[in-house]
Amino acid sequence: MRQSQITYWCHEIIRSQVPEGGFYIDATMGKGKDTLMLCRLAGTSGSVLAFDIQEKALLLTDRLLEEQGVRSRARLVLAGHESMDQYARKDSADAICFNFGYLPGGDHRIATSPASSVEAIHKGLAILKHGGMMSLCIYSGGDTGFEEKERILAFLKGLPTREYTVIMNEYYNRKNCPPMPVFVFKK
């Protein structure tokens, strides 16, 4: 059932909340599915900035965007998501997407880390426009997943309510550490 997949759910929320033709960031491009969705949302007047630390992710994303005819809408950066402030200015992004963990089908030893993820979220919040949103797909488990989840959630819980709304969702009847979709809206 497609609508129960975390990425599908996050894509639907993003599409319903942000304007078409904007500027979007995929903080963890992976295989490029979020980047592709953002490129389609960007249309011919918008743009996408996408990050990953693995060259394999960049190559997979590049190929996918080329096949779908939207490659010109995205700038792919081989760098960690915590460096996004070097590529995007404050109050410029309509939406920022995160998928924490490791590249699906890739080396599980290469994964996002609690420190860099919290740093990236912090920097991303400054880059978001007022009225913009951040989507976070939090996968727990593995060597650092539980710690990363707890650190991210603790950081988000401390955000000032006058500036942000944080909505945390969970798969209530799934076992084995299901992913958690979280949305942050900047007022």
Q: Brief description of this entry?
A:
With 187 residues, the protein is an alpha/beta fold. Helices cover 33% and strands 24% of the residues. Helix 4 (114-127) runs parallel beside helix 5 (145-157).
Structure description:
The protein is of the alpha/beta class and 187 residues long. The chain has five helices and seven strands. A seven-stranded mixed β-sheet has the order 3-2-1-4-5-7-6, sandwiched between helices. The radius of gyration is 15 Å and the shape is globular. It starts with 5 loop residues before the first helix and ends with a strand.
How large is the count of helical segments? Answer: 5
Low-confidence regions: none
Molecular shape = globular
Given the helix and strand composition, which structural class is it?
alpha/beta
**Order of SSEs:** HEHEHEEHEHEE
Overall mean pLDDT stands at: 89
Across the major sheet, the strand order is 3-2-1-4-5-7-6
- Main beta sheet: 7 strands, mixed
Write down how many β-strands occur, each being a DSSP E stretch of 2 or more residues: 7
The fraction of residues assigned to DSSP E strands is: 15-25%
The helix content is 25-40%
Distance between the termini: 33 Å
CA-atom Rg in angstroms: 15 Å
